[in-house]
Write a structure and sequence with these properties.
CATH class: Alpha Beta
Low-confidence stretches: none
Mean pLDDT: 93
Number of strands: 9
Strand order of the largest sheet: 4-3-7-8-9
Shape: globular
CATH topology: Rossmann fold
Number of domains: 1
Largest sheet: 5 strands, parallel
Radius of gyration: 17 Å
Structural class: alpha/beta
């Protein structure tokens, strides 16, 4: 008879400073003068990914209480939100770019700093009066998170909080979210953009 599996003890998570040091910085992308903060480096590094999920889980558990659902924004919000939802025992709704969801959807168009875009969600994934926390990898101007929250709110959901791995405070996304009656929570901030 096989021995029962034993739980693996998790080591202490990396500090937020250590996580910040592991976020990639790509100069002059997508245009000259911009430093692109690449969070995929936190996904490829197992210790950094686990630590990011641990820190996000702690932040979100303090916000949600019972019965909340996470709403992840495509695409880099997906892995972080999925891992946190699993860890905290929460549901997860995916907010996607147009044409990716097979059932009945609701969509919203929104302005970007360089054009327009759209997001969609399955209508039947958003019960009226359900509490949601929006999760994404990076907060820049806040347009995408505001659109995601607006989409959920149009369907009758309650959305007060958005959680990000990285904030670029010089782009004033947290202020834009506050104007939309959303609280921004970020693990890491980088001055400049």
């Amino acid at each position: 008879m096989a021995e029962p599996a034993t739980a693996i003890e998790s080591p202490q998570p990396l500090s937020l400073r250590q996580l910040a040091d592991r976020v990639g910085a790509v100069p002059d992308f997508p245009v000259p003068g911009i430093i692109f903060r690449d969070v995929t480096t936190l996904l490829t590094d197992a210790e950094a990914f686990r630590s990011t999920v641990d820190h996000m889980s702690a932040a979100i558990s303090g916000l949600v209480g019972d019965g909340a659902t996470l709403a992840a924004i495509e695409s880099r919000g997906f892995p972080f939100a999925a891992a946190v939802a699993y860890k905290l025992g929460l549901g997860l709704v995916l907010i996607r770019k147009p044409g990716k969801l097979p059932r009945s959807t609701r969509s919203i168009d929104y302005q970007l700093e360089y054009g327009t875009d759209s997001l969609e969600v399955h209508v039947d994934d958003v019960p009226t009066d359900q509490r949601f926390v929006v999760v994404d990898d990076l907060l820049a101007t806040g347009g995408t998170a505001i659109a995601a929250a607006g989409l959920l709110r149009e369907l009758g959901a309650r959305v007060d909080d958005c959680v990000f791995v990285v904030d670029l405070p010089d782009l004033a996304g947290a202020t834009a979210l506050a104007d939309a009656k959303l609280q921004a929570h970020s693990l890491i901030s980088f001055a400049g953009h």
